[in-house]
Amino acid sequence: MKKTLFAIMALTCMASSLVMAWGKKEKSGKVLNIYCWNEEFQSRFNDYYASKLPSDIKVNWVITPNQDNAYQNKLDEALLGQKKAKADDKIDLFLVEADYALKYVDTKYTLNVKKDIGLTDADLAQQYKYTKDIMTDSKGNLKGVSWQACPGGFIYRRSIAKDVLGTDDPTEVGKALSNWDKFDSVAAKAKAKGYFMLSGFDDAFRVFSDNVTTAWVDKSSKIQIDPQIRRWIKQTKEYTDKGYNNKANLWSAESFAGAGKNGKVFGYFGPAWFLDFCLAPATLENPNGAKAVGNGSYGDWAFCKGPQGFSWGGTWICGAAGSDNIDLIKDIMKTLTCDPTTMVKIAKEAGDFTNNERAMTQVANSSYQNPFLGGQNHMAFFLDSAKSIDKSHMSPYDQGMNETIQHAMADYFNGKVSESTAWDNFYKSIIEKYPNLKK
User: Fold this and answer.
1) Sequence-distant (≥ 6) Cβ neighbours of residue 210 within 8 angstroms
2) Given this model, what pLDDT does residue 27 score?
3) pLDDT tens digits for 336-375?
4) In what order do the strands lie in the sheet with 267-271?
5) Long-range contacts made by residues 283-291, C-beta under 8 angstroms, separation at least 24?
6) Cα separations (Å) of 379 from 150, 221, 304, 351, 357?
7) Which region holds residue 194: left if phi is over 0, alpha if psi is between -120 and 50, else beta?
8) pTM to 2 decimals?
9) Which of 14, 173, 318, 321 matches a 20 to 30 Å C-alpha distance to 293?
10) How far apart are the C-alpha atoms of 428 and 439, rounded to whole Å?
């Protein structure tokens, strides 16, 4: 189902009918319903909060994949039925990510983190500014919090870097890849050695899309194509034609196979969550074996900034209006997104760059070593980037736009259609998805 079940404007307008009493504290319920799209938050919850959970509380996870707006459709349907739902069926927490966070921020479906839930300015003081800006509504109310910040970089294969550049040192490799001209030059050298610089079409997309200066949609609902998006298309077509990538689509088995023991991919762009949650498991020859050197290519990786700073994604925890577990929501949010001890533990044990400037400075200056990265402490690369992330060009349509442009251009990259036809297909598909938009 490609169209969202409920149009964005309908969601916003119908939200105004919710009774204001939703924000008031009620007697605690016995079922905590959490809506999300994968198991990332579930693992953080289980590892760093579940031990604090009252014994009489049952956690019900409702997990729906994100692709093609499936998660949003499921969430929208549940939110619209929240007022009439039985107490144990009401949503308590739901997760949103950067690509569509704005869709939920300016509605009464999300509780005010301070006024309704009870977190204080002091609790939130060390969180990175952009993570709060994204979840702040037009009236200045904070509507969600995150345990992570998501500056990104280039995660490269050490053994391939040694073969191509003569070194695997992150500082030296970083110098060799410090702008796109240098990156292209190394891609040519890698090709000559039998390697792919990137796994496929979408690897560099987020680097370019995060550096746009215009939103996907303007105030009159007209679609805008930023020069950075066109630059990604131009580069990706060149990389495909020259054999610099392996023609894989993001998240595909073929893409991650390039990181395996016998893989030939030089590197992948991504933030800390991609490194730990996505790439590291794909490098294990024996997925049930130890996460250690000798199991696939695990440990044969390192991290550098790459040709252009960027951020990618992020997950925010929202309290759902109508929840009967406000006190529990507050404790979850405070523990997982405000407590510096928890933030340090998540960073050191799970590899996440967590949403606490003081904690991350502590980890960056510590003896922490990431085993997947051959013992590198990569956190220092993120410190300055996290403070400078700017999300002012986001729109509520970002997930659909990003997925559709990548899908439409894949046929062009593969030589199946012309670029103009690919653009026609993009506009047709996106306007079908969002009928209120115009070319």
Assistant:
1) 152, 310, 311, 312
2) 54
3) 999 999 999 999 998 899 999 999 999 999 999 999 999 9
4) 267-271, 152-157, 301-304
5) 283/259, 283/372, 285/260, 285/261, 291/371, 291/372
6) 11, 39, 10, 9, 11
7) left
8) 0.85
9) 173
10) 9
| Closest listed residue to residue 409, CA positions, set 294, 237, 289, 256 | 237
Q: CA–CA separation, 118 vs 163, rounded Å?
A: 55
Q: Are 92 and 62 in contact (CB under 8 A)?
A: no
Written as six digits, the tokens of 430 are 């996106």
Asked if 91 contacts 74 with a C-beta cutoff of 8 angstroms, the reply is no
Pairing state between β 315-319 and 198-200: unpaired
Is 307 within 8 Å of 297 (Cβ atoms)? no
- Output the CA torsion 363→130→91→67 (10° steps): -90
- Compute the distance between CA of residue 168 and CA of residue 184 in angstroms, rounded to an integer: 18
- For 171-229, what is each residue's pLDDT tens digit? 999 999 999 999 999 999 999 999 999 999 999 999 999 999 999 999 999 999 999 99
Chain position carrying tokens 């085993």 = 371
Torsion of CA 101, 130, 271, 338, to 10 degrees: -90
Nearest by Cα to 23 from 91, 90, 96, 108: 108
Give me the helix-helix angle, 357-364 and 379-388, nearest 10°: 150
